[in-house]
Specification:
OB fold (Dihydrolipoamide Acetyltransferase, E2P); alpha+beta; Rossmann fold; 20 strands; 25% helix
């Protein structure tokens, strides 16, 4: 029974005879007046992928999604969905649906009427509408709520109704624009599970925009990291964690975030370089760079290890105990930024205590003056990512 129902929803999403829902973007750009909001962008999203676009506010990720949806007109470039050029097609003719962060439900309509609304607009037969609404409501556990109004629903229930209304149209591609930003922390976690389950059951192509890198790490087959209107890097969650191509990617991936410090290359050999920090401490890094180069060094909190002779240290200004893990925020007099280091959850630390840390050279990241990652010696090491994902 479950397999039959799952197959029915897959057919509803893709439509009869439609088995390709890839999205191809070529040279797509957007300009508002003299401002380039989206630089020329090339991107291929395969049929059935769950791609998450992540980046800070104003980086162009929502603009890219709206261009795919047809809600914005591109300044240049083309968009193809399922192999069909839809650059100039109306939103309703693109075979996709969009879920907004505001839910956008009609308050005077019941859950069933909200879900059925796009089918009524399309003048589908009543029997077909009833069948589709029931199938989608069953897949999203909404059957007991069909007679309620939106005001009688929780935030998570409203979001599920919004998703149901989107997929009942049989879209080939589902676009989601920061759908969890209005929910509290506990509900965000539950809804992340809901989206992952939905994608696993339906196999739809999903393009999901968020500024929350935890959502990106937990949901995505691939992540698109954006910064200042351009795509910085595209790859799997762990690949981006292990080998960020730019400073922007390093800042976007990892929780807590990577620690950064200005450094100078003072020595180089076949094994890597020696980096001198502002306080005179030296750190070995398995990267290639010329002596004298000014770089930005990056180290992840979870890669630091307690070492009384280590190059990193300071007084504990804040100590966060989070069950199996703890995080110490270390400061030095006059410093504008703290160093965050991960500790075992059973470690006891007093505020004001001085701690020092070391790190393996192959776990040190370094970026040049343009923010590009320096070439690494050997492949990035595999690490324990449980704290990030």
């Amino acid at each position: 029974m479950f397999q039959l129902e799952r197959g029915l929803i897959r057919c509803m999403l893709r439509g009869k005879g439609e088995d390709v829902s890839s999205v191809r973007i070529e040279g797509l750009s957007k300009r508002f007046g003299a401002v380039d909001v989206l630089a020329p962008t090339d991107l291929l999203i395969e049929d059935g992928e769950f791609v998450v676009i992540v980046g800070p506010s104003g980086c162009g990720k929502s603009t890219l999604l709206r261009l795919i949806a047809g809600l914005e007109e591109p300044s240049a470039g083309r968009i193809a969905i399922g192999g069909r050029d839809v650059t100039d097609a109306a939103p309703a003719d693109r075979g996709l649906a969009m879920v907004f962060q505001s839910y956008a439900l009609y308050p005077h309509l019941s859950v069933a009427e909200n879900i059925a609304f796009p089918l009524r607009v399309a003048r589908r037969p009543k029997a077909e509408i009833a069948e589709r609404v029931a199938a989608v409501a069953r897949s999203l556990d909404l059957l007991p709520l069909l007679d309620r109004r939106p005001r009688a629903l929780s935030g998570g229930q409203r979001q599920r109704v919004s998703i149901a209304r989107a997929i009942v149209r049989r879209p080939r591609v589902l676009l989601l624009d920061e759908p969890l930003s209005n929910l509290d922390a506990e509900l965000r976690v539950r809804m992340r599970h809901e989206f992952a389950r939905l994608h696993g059951e339906l196999g739809a192509t999903m393009i999901y925009v968020t500024h929350d890198q935890l959502e990106a790490m937990t949901l995505a087959n691939r992540i698109v990291v954006m910064s200042e209107g351009r795509v910085e890097q595209v790859g799997g969650p762990i690949a981006l964690y292990d080998a960020p191509a730019t400073l922007a990617v390093a800042r976007a991936i990892g929780s807590p975030g990577m620690n950064f410090a200005a450094a100078t290359v003072v020595a180089a050999d076949a094994a890597g370089v020696a980096l001198r920090l502002g306080d005179g401490a030296e750190v070995r890094a398995a990267v290639r760079a010329p002596v004298g180069a000014a770089v930005t060094m990056g180290v992840r909190p979870e890669h630091l290890v307690l070492d009384e002779q280590g190059p990193f240290g300071g007084a504990v200004e804040l100590f966060e105990r989070l069950g199996p893990l703890s995080f110490a925020h270390l400061g030095t007099p006059g410093a504008h930024h703290t160093l965050v280091a991960q500790l075992p959850g059973d470690r006891r630390v007093m505020l004001g205590a001085t701690l020092r840390f070391g790190i393996r050279p192959e776990l040190v990241h370094a970026f040049d003056g343009e923010g590009r990652a320096l070439p690494r010696i050997g492949a990035p090491p595999r690490a324990n990512h449980s704290a990030q994902i």
